Amino acid sequence: MDLLILADEQEEMIDKYIDIGIMFVLDDSGVKAEILVTDNGNGVLEIKNLSVFPKYQKMGYGKKLINFVCKHYKNKFNTIYVGTGDSPLTIPFYEKCGFVKSHTVKNFFIDNYDHPIIECGVKLTDMVYLKREL
User: Fold this and answer.
1) DSSP class of 114
2) How far, in Å, CA of 77 to CA of 75, rounded?
3) Which domain holds residue 22?
4) Tell me, what's the pLDDT at 133?
5) Band (120; pLDDT cuts 50, 70, 90)
6) Closest alpha carbon to 8 in 34, 44, 39, 45
7) Is this model's pTM higher than 0.90 or not?
8) Is 84 helix (H, G, I), strand (E, B) or coil?
9) Cα separations in angstroms, 13 against 5, 30, 32, 61, 108
10) Which H, E and C letters describe 23-70, residue by residue?
11) How far apart are CA 123 and CA 85, in angstroms?
């Protein structure tokens, strides 16, 4: 849970998808990162949680997990989505991983979290979905 909460800081939100998802953990002489994905039907896979322990960030572990999942599921799914806040930290990361902006869910963070979510000094309001073809 310590790793999951880094990417989604409200445990009640994690509880909504943890039992329907599949989690992969990257262990490189100890756990460094995790990714949790769900099957959304119709050939769509979604990244619900991706996190890297802070001291291992910017070392390629997140990108390695994304590439692993994309390769692992490329014959079963057509598209992978990820939803994130409109943050200068996460949007560029996913774009470097081959994702393009798809659509936005207005007020997602306001409607679904019991406290303001701040990332890189930005208060998150809308959920931005990005997609990558597999």
Assistant:
1) S
2) 6
3) 4-133
4) 98
5) confident
6) 34
7) yes
8) strand
9) 10, 26, 22, 24, 12
10) EEEEECCCEEEEEEEEEEECCEEEEEEEEECHHHCCCCHHHHHHHHHH
11) 9
